Amino acid sequence: MSAIPLASPLPSFVPSADEFVEEPVQSEAIPRLPSARSRTPVAPTSAHVRPRLPESPGILAWLARRFQPGEATIWLGPSSAVTPLLELTYAGSASVEGEISLIEGANRFHPFRIGELGRDFGVPPEEVLRRIRLARAFTAYQLVALVDGWSIEARRRRPTLLVAHELPTLFETAEIRSEERDALLRHVARTLRTVIDRAPYPLLVALEGGFDRFPGLLETGPRFADLITFRRHPRGLALRAYRDDARVRLVRRRDGQRGMEEFADDRTEEPEVIPWAAPHPPTVRHWTSG
Predict the structure, then answer these.
(1) Rounded mean pLDDT of the chain?
(2) Where are the domains positioned within the chain?
(3) Is domain 4-16+50-252 given the CATH code 3.40.50.300 in the classification?
(4) C-alpha–C-alpha distance, residues 26 and 4, integer Å
(5) 161 CB contacts (<8 Å, ≥6 apart)?
(6) 0.90 exceeded by the pTM?
(7) Bridge-partner residues for 216, per DSSP?
(8) ω into residue 57 within 30 of 0, thus cis?
(9) How far apart are CA 168 and CA 192, in angstroms?
(10) pLDDT per residue over 178-232, tens digit each?
(11) For residue range 134-143, what is the model confidence (pLDDT) as tens digits?
């Protein structure tokens, strides 16, 4: 996998020498990862479209190509790798007047940090946050209720992207027995499929660790548009999209370096190159979690 200069440090990302060990995922283990030829397209309307993301920085355009209306895209990896690009996605969406509907299961939403990223895109922080409709659960049972009502909310608000962030976290407590945890998460997985059947918007499911944390997601959950794994390496992030085996590595740029190269496949002799007109680096102001 070839290195890609990252135009500016991503917020909250601290490179670590300890790499995230990527869980091997075989294509036969993903029964609803359809080929582009076999996919039944959703009838195009003004509401049911791919999520609105800007063409720059180039990594957002790369991510946007991996969403489809009425299907789920899975981001699988450690929080330190997924969160920076998730927050960049929120800010980038607002910059092109996109709307996010978010169910937050791990209480990791940082409004001040996302607002500052919005400034880098030229969008006031309050406008960025206005375009993110957040539903935050504090118990597993509250989360189940939120997912059960999500399709009604989505049809009413007409977002451009649904985001389910770390839904299993609230079920991993001593108060919930393992049998109940398994049954509830399988219900959530089935309901996610119902949500995007009734309100066929693109769905992003961000999940730390492996699929074993989310029983039922593979078997009875929504059909997958794509699966993207996130891995840390000592100088940045490595991403792999499983539908077309496209790979991207982000690294911190050297002083004076500008732009970004994207290599879709290490085995190609002529890699694709996409310039990145990145946002300005984050401010030095330190914010606390919201």
Answers:
(1) 77
(2) 4-16+50-252
(3) yes
(4) 26
(5) 51, 52, 67, 89, 93, 98, 99, 100, 101, 201, 202, 203, 204
(6) no
(7) none
(8) yes
(9) 13
(10) 999 999 999 999 999 999 999 999 999 999 988 999 999 999 999 999 999 999 8
(11) 999 999 999 9
User: How far, in Å, CA of 277 to CA of 121, rounded?
Assistant: 11
DSSP result, 52-100: ---S-SHHHHHHHTT--TTSEEEEES-HHHHHHHHHHHHHHHHHTT--E
Amino acid in position 21: V
Question: Given strand 4-6, what is the order of strands in its sheet?
Answer: 4-6, 246-252, 236-241, 224-233, 72-76, 203-207, 161-165, 100-104, 132-136
Find the length of the chain. 290
- Residue ranges of alpha helices (H) inside the chain are 58-64, 79-95, 111-120, 125-130, 140-148, 150-157, 178-198, 217-220
- Tokens at residue 256, please? 């004076």
Predicted confidence at residue 49, as pLDDT, reads 55
Report the chain's terminal Cα–Cα distance, integer Å: 36
